[in-house]
Specification:
Helices cover 74% and strands 0% of the residues. The chain is built from 3 helices and no strands. The chain has one domain. It is an all-alpha fold. The longest helix is centred in the C-terminal third of the chain and has 38 residues, at 57-94.
Length: 96
């Protein structure tokens, strides 16, 4: 068994920032949702490997989940617009 502990400093967590990005991703801009999702995934991996402070794991998970939800809302919104825009175009072509 090796009792050697790494002396490399642990990076500070970005949980609060990721939580804010996730909220912004839902409310106003999908790019923040994408950032929260991607950065949250990499931060959780770094926490599991011991390279990042694990005290922000809950905030990081919440930000990542909100980022995923924001991306899903954006995709559903685009599909909604395409579907009803297509229906409106078809209705206009039929002369109604």
């Amino acid at each position: 068994m090796n009792d050697f502990q790494s002396t490399a400093p642990v990076k500070a967590h970005r949980g609060v920032m990721l939580l804010i990005f996730g909220i912004l991703g839902i409310l106003c801009c999908v790019i923040f949702g994408i950032l929260a999702w991607v950065m949250g995934q990499s931060d959780l991996k770094a926490m599991a490997e011991g390279r990042m402070d694990p005290s922000g794991e809950g905030l990081t998970k919440a930000g990542k989940i909100l980022g995923i939800i924001g991306c899903a809302f954006a995709i559903l919104s685009i599909l909604w617009v395409l579907f009803f825009g297509g229906l409106a175009a078809l209705g206009a072509m039929r002369g109604h």
